[in-house]
Specification:
710 residues, alpha+beta, seven-stranded antiparallel β-sheet, Immunoglobulin-like, elongated
Length: 710
């Protein structure tokens, strides 16, 4: 038996931070209280209605929507996105555990399973925690008696007398199942939330949830791999039992690790205090040196000041003597009063020399001392640089390198780095970045500390280039800065959508993954049957699929990748009022030479520019990107064929009526054209033959953690 008191952390709801109450299982396999799901969804809907106002986020005192989810709500409100009117509305739920937006489907909360196993464990924990608190009978007249039994069929608690009255011997109720007093009542049979009259008897291995036979026959699990419930029960129980037995068998090893970790905790505390003392002593020595230098500089400045003041004061007194009836001039005036020639000449000769010197100094005035103290200004730039790179030990750290392949610029920036030696020798990393702006003379780096080897940044401007660099720290040791890497943000806010599996979706030719983020065209037997009816020089129809969300205004960007083996893929945008025409368009069954943007011909399509197409598309395939043959395009067909980027992006500007196609790796525009944005605009994709398209996944705070787990 497992001690109930040791598992509290597993029984806490991630939203309300309290014990689970009627927990539900989300599609991401995390659990959350039923009440918390409703409160979060109500806050989510209120935020849509109120434009993501600050007050709407405070609708519930028990839960808080994450900042990333609120940012997404604000972006959706500003963008004017609307759900496809041809698609049943699906519910997005921001999971508080994995920080991802989970699609709950058309049924929303009603499509979620209640986790009765977790609910039972929580109830056992509650009973262990409140063993002294009795469960009272539900049917006694006041005052109620303490219950002795709980009927699982009636979902009620009874004392002995009330149980006999409500379950008389020989009646149907006498056959009810009863247990000890409890407040946790669970149904005997688990029913399907989508088909409420059907019990679940199978397990979907793709979605990892129980399903009924109707789900498998014609529901959302028709093409999924399923197994019987008994087989799934046996397999999962064997795996879980085996893993638990292994962990229990290693109990002594786990205890040894716990003991070792306890010693390491104490050792870390002790060593940190020693390191603090040594660091304080080192800095005190630096303070002493700086104080001595400071005192010497102040003394030198004071001495120079006194000498200069003395010289200037003497000069002031000399010039005051040149004033009338004062000093030298006054004395000369008195000498002029002498009438005896011999006495006058005797005195005036020396006086005349002094008067001449005073006259010359007056003509060429120059202060006796400088007033500035520039010679005493201390240039500490070099010393500041040395202090900035201060290290108390000679051994250095490896210089980290930013991994440009793993780093991404999308709705947020994901910057990843690694050390050449593949060792995590640094305790912490400092990532710095700044926006490249030719108008700014000085560069101001923004700094953030990171414990791991990746960081998600969300405060970057659209359509801007940024420089990034990183360095490692281990105690007071720091590595040199890494090589600066320049990356560019998308030209507009990122637009999030999924592939629409309802509007015109061809289940025979196309295959969607469960998350509706990837679509694949299967060139199989149905394609051969379709091509049997066609004449020479024609190809089969393109299989179209659209996004489930439309754009009404603003400027938006989305990205995707096309598998290298893909034969023919078309991507672009389509007005909402032309979607039906798209799926019934007869122009698709034509010769490639007459299609305006095929790219799979010798160039004769230049003579025919078909403007009747319901959507704006470019052609991809065979690892190439084909610029459409428009009047403004180059005449040489070879110059219109570009290598296919690893990741492509589309930027739709509804206000300007322009759509651009980008290399999403470097955010370089490959082709741009005009488009009519008078109505709702939807992303559209068309595939033929063997081809696959994957939507770019949004960068979240736990993006790397999620992909490492996969």
């Amino acid at each position: 038996k497992v001690a109930i008191k040791g598992i509290e952390r597993e029984l806490i709801c991630p939203a309300c931070k309290e014990l689970f109450t009627h927990p539900l299982i989300l599609p991401c396999q995390h659990n959350i209280c039923h009440k918390c799901v409703k409160e979060i969804l109500f806050a989510f809907e209120d935020s849509f209605a109120d434009g993501g106002s600050e007050s709407s986020n405070q609708s519930s005192p028990r839960i808080r929507i994450s900042a990333s989810s609120m940012d997404r709500i604000d972006r959706i409100n500003r963008s004017g996105r609307k759900r496809n009117s041809l698609t049943p509305r699906s519910t997005l739920f921001p999971c508080p555990s994995c920080q991802r937006d989970i699609d709950l489907g058309e049924r929303g909360i009603n499509g979620l399973f209640r986790n009765f196993t977790l609910e039972t464990i929580v109830e056992r924990y509650r009973q262990a925690a409140r063993a002294a608190v009795a469960i009272m009978c539900d049917f006694c007249k006041p005052p109620p008696q303490e219950s002795t039994k709980s009927c699982m069929d009636c979902s009620a608690n009874y004392c002995n007398e009330c149980f006999k009255i409500h379950h008389p011997w020989g009646s149907v109720k006498a056959q009810h199942e009863y247990v000890g007093p409890t407040t946790n009542f669970r149904p005997k049979v688990l029913m399907c939330p989508e088909h409420e009259m059907e019990r679940v008897n199978m397990y979907c291995e793709i979605c990892r949830r129980p399903v009924c036979h109707l789900c498998k026959l014609g529901g959302g699990h028709a093409n999924h791999r399923v197994t019987t419930m008994s087989t799934a029960y046996k397999t999962l129980k064997e795996k879980l039992s085996k893993d638990i037995e292994y962990l229990i068998s290693k109990e002594s090893q786990v205890k040894a690790h716990i003991t070792q970790l306890g010693l390491l905790l104490k050792e870390t505390e002790c060593n940190s205090e020693i390191a603090k003392q040594e660091a304080s002593h080192s800095f005190e020595k630096l303070y002493h040196v700086l104080e001595e230098k400071k005192s010497a500089a102040l003394r030198a400045i004071e001495m120079s000041k006194n000498i200069r003041l003395e010289k200037l004061q003497t000069q002031v007194e000399e010039y005051q003597g040149l004033l009338e009836n004062n000093g030298l001039v006054g004395y000369a005036q008195e000498v002029l009063k002498e009438t005896d020639p011999s006495c006058f000449v005797q005195t005036a000769k020396q006086l005349h020399v002094r008067i001449q010197k005073a006259t010359e100094s007056l003509k060429s005035f120059r202060p006796a001392a400088e007033t500035t103290f520039e010679d005493f200004m201390v240039d500490t730039a070099k010393q500041e640089g040395v202090l900035g790179d201060l290290s108390f030990h000679s051994s250095g750290l490896e210089i980290p390198e930013i991994n440009e392949e793993q780093s991404r610029m999308y709705n947020k920036a994901l910057i990843s780095w690694e050390c050449p030696g593949k060792t995590d020798s640094a305790d912490i990393y400092v990532l710095e970045y700044h926006k490249l702006n030719k108008e700014e003379e000085s560069v101001t780096w923004q700094k953030t500390e990171v414990c791991g080897k990746s960081k998600v940044l969300s405060d970057l401007d659209d359509d801007s280039s940024y420089a990034f660099r990183v360095r490692g720290y281990k105690g007071s040791i720091c590595s040199p800065w890494s090589r600066e890497v320049i990356m560019r943000t998308p030209p507009a806010p990122v637009f999030s959508f999924l592939f629409d599996d309802k509007c015109g979706y061809n289940t025979e030719h196309l295959l969607l993954n469960p998350r509706r983020t990837s679509v694949e065209s299967r060139a199989g037997f149905p394609l051969l049957l379709g091509s049997e009816r066609l004449q020479v020089g024609c190809y089969t129809t393109l299989d179209y699929i659209v996004g489930d969300t439309g754009i009404a205004k603003g400027k938006h960007f989305w990205a995707f990748s096309v598998e290298a083996y893909s034969y023919l893929v078309k991507v672009g945008v389509v007005p909402g009022n032309k979607i039906q025409k798209l799926f019934h368009n007869t122009h698709d069954m034509t010769s490639p030479r007459y299609e305006q943007d095929s790219g799979h011909d010798s160039g004769s399509e230049d003579a025919c520019f078909d403007s009747s197409q319901p959507c704006t598309l470019v052609t991809l395939g065979m690892k190439k990107f084909f610029i459409p043959a428009t009047p403004a395009a180059p005449k040489d067909p070879a110059s219109r064929i570009l290598p296919l980027p690893l990741c492509l992006g589309i930027c739709l500007d509804c206000d300007r009526g322009r759509v651009g196609f980008y290399d999403a790796g470097c955010m370089k525009c490959l082709y741009e054209c005009e488009v009519d944005c008078s109505g709702l605009m939807y992303p559209v994709f068309a595939l033929m033959g063997g081809a696959a398209v994957h939507l770019e996944e949004a960068v979240t705070a736990k993006y790397r953690e999620y992909h490492d787990d996969i």
